[in-house]
Amino acid sequence: MSTVKWNGRNLIKTIAENEKAATKLYRAIAAEARIGEQFFELLAKDEERHEKIYNALLEKFTKSNMDLELEESDAEYVDILIENNTLFDDELIEKAKKIFTKSQIFDIAERAERDAVLFVTELQRLYPDLAKEEMEIILKEEKAHLKKVLERKRDSQPMFGRGM
To answer: Which fold would CATH assign to domain 3-156?
Structure first.
């Protein structure tokens, strides 16, 4: 197995950008009367706090002290996760506000929260000592968000075809 020098700043930067985009998305959804639930504002507040933590980590750690020796396949795996990251841009947010159904909005929120859990898990695996307590709290919160989104998604679906 060959190893490569790999740097995690891009991973943290991606996570911070995701948190910022999720905050914007959730705030836009919360502002909509037809969906406008306190639920999305609460998610937005958590994501906003998470983004601040990641940005503080980016400021604290220079490029040089984020270097790792990774197996080449592992580095490629994380790089492809980052490359294929779906950011919730302004266009998607506008669509979410205007056209999307409640179930589509929960699908988007589910994707955001699944990605958050995946990225935080990878960050913890690669940098087990990096802001250990904060990362554990964030992971716990992201998992709770995902659970709540999935429950609301399930509860918002029609009763037909749910194997009663």
So the answer is: Ferritin (1.20.1260)
